[in-house]
Design a protein that fits this description.
Distance between the termini: 31 Å
Keywords: Membrane, Transmembrane, Transmembrane helix, Transport
Largest sheet: none
CATH topology: Growth Hormone, Chain: A
Membrane topology: Multi-pass membrane protein
Oligomer: single chain
InterPro entries: MFS (IPR011701), MFS_dom (IPR020846), MFS_trans_sf (IPR036259)
Number of domains: 1
GO molecular function, one term: transmembrane transporter activity
Main location: membrane
Number of strands: 0
CATH superfamily: MFS general substrate transporter like domains
CATH class: Mainly Alpha
Structural class: mainly alpha
Strand content: under 5%
Helix content: over 70%
Order of helices and strands: HHHHHHHHHHHHHHHHHHH
Radius of gyration: 21 Å
Number of helices: 19
């Protein structure tokens, strides 16, 4: 159910790409100046600001109550975008959409990590994230079908994309209230007996030293914000998010206007690269959990991502450029699932994990802002400067990984010799 909600979260924030080749640009004059970049950018302003506050509310109100409320609210906003008459209204509603969607992803990751041990979590996060990524990859096919409802699909089809997908979001979010499993300590969970709940808590207690949901205090926030490795890993995660958002927002436009495919084919061709990325990310996540390392896999993702972006940006023939999108999506999605799990692995307390998750997703939103700024309207339809800028960010992620891993290994060796204590536990060791 969390995957279903996140699927439509991705769809509702990225369906602008399909709408733009279905009449949105012409209807609300979005193709004037930097308006297209602005409506993408404003989403991430609220998204950055409200992630941590949302996680705090999540713990107080419960996962089912809060996440379901957010879903219904942003579904109504998405529906409203389909009724907009000018680009200013679209921009304002997109800003509200960012505020409401801010709590879903960090809340889901926080909830998942509350149930599983350190080297069980990447597979679960990968299934959650890549299920949503895979299903949302077909959103352009769905969008194409929805445009056909309009009497003039090429010019008015965009309205139906927002209206119908917003309505679906509302329906799924109402159902989610009945289905979502809350935190282990919540009395709302009825599917486990008290003895089974205690087994879950004991598993977490053996590894973390605490199975209860810790309280997020200013001391915890300060400690997390000043932890250098949290920011290093969050930056790695940000690079993957930037690339993924670039593909979600701009691949349909590159296929349609840059590579010359028809509208219908441009919608359909966005799905296969995302489908391959799902298989790749799940396989990599299994291997990373098995061998209990993250850094070497991060470097492999960086290579794939940069090679794919270079193929899209600098080759001439459509087919090799399209092949580059397969490599690029594998690399960027791999960075997301591995980077996200890496950040979760290297904190022990539940409270610090909540803040770490919010920082990671905040940095992902910064990646979205970066993507909106570097993929400029004047660079359409190929967006080569945007592809180069995204590749540079991925190279930064690789460089940070090369620096971070030896430092984490050094810290572990110091802990082995009794020279330091990591995360207030003599038994805790960093994952590198």
């Amino acid at each position: 159910m969390l995957g279903s909600m996140y699927t439509f979260s991705l769809i509702d924030r990225t369906n602008v790409g399909g709408a733009r080749i279905s009449g949105l640009d012409q209807t609300v004059d979005l193709d004037v100046g930097n308006r297209a970049s602005i409506i993408i950018l404003v989403f991430y302003v609220g998204y950055v600001i409200f992630e941590l506050p949302s996680n705090l509310v999540l713990k107080k109100l419960g996962a089912a109550n809060w996440l379901s409320f957010l879903g219904v609210a942003w579904g109504l906003i998405s529906l409203g975008i389909g009724l907009s008459k000018n680009w200013e209204t679209v921009a304002a509603l997109r800003a509200m959409l960012g505020i409401l969607e801010a709590g879903l992803f960090p809340g889901c990751v926080y909830l998942i990590s509350a149930w599983y041990r350190r080297y069980e979590v990447q597979k679960r996060i990968a299934v959650f994230f890549m299920t949503a990524s895979f299903l949302s990859s077909f959103s352009n096919i769905l969008a194409y079908g929805l445009t056909q409802i309009a009497s003039d699909p090429v010019n008015d089809g965009w309205k139906w994309i927002f209206v119908v997908e917003g309505a679906i979001t509302i329906g799924i979010s109402i159902l989610a209230w009945f289905v979502i499993v809350d935190f282990p300590e919540s009395s709302r969970n009825k599917f486990l007996s008290p003895e089974e709940v205690q087994v879950v808590k004991n598993r977490l207690l053996a590894e973390r030293g605490s199975a209860e949901g810790g309280k997020v205090t200013w001391k915890v926030i300060k400690e997390t914000v000043l932890d250098w490795q949290v920011w290093s890993i969050a930056t790695v995660y940000m690079s993957g998010s930037c690339g993924t958002y670039g593909f979600l927002f701009f691949l349909p436009i590159i296929l349609r206007n840059g590579l010359g495919y028809s509208q219908s084919l441009s919608f359909c061709l966005t799905a296969p690269p995302a489908a391959l990325a799902v298989v790749y990310a799940l396989g990599i996540s299994w291997a990373a959990d098995k061998y209990r390392v993250r850094g070497p896999f991060i470097l492999m993702h960086c290579v794939l991502g940069v090679v794919g972006l270079c193929m899209i940006g600098f080759l001439n023939r459509p087919t090799p450029r399209y092949v580059g999108s397969f490599l690029g999506e594998c690399g960027t999605n791999g960075l997301i699932v591995t980077g996200l799990a890496w950040g979760q692995n290297n904190v022990r307390s539940d409270a610090k994990r909540s803040v770490t998750t919010a920082i990671q997703v905040m940095m992902a939103a910064v990646g979205g802002i970066y993507s909106a700024l570097v993929f400029r309207q004047q660079d359409a339809p190929d967006y080569v400067p945007g592809l180069v800028a995204t590749g540079a960010l991925i190279l930064l992620a690789g460089a940070l990984t090369i620096i971070t891993c030896p430092l984490l290994i050094k810290a572990n060796r110091q802990a082995d010799r009794g020279e330091r204590v990591i995360e207030e536990s003599p038994d805790f060791r960093y994952t590198w």
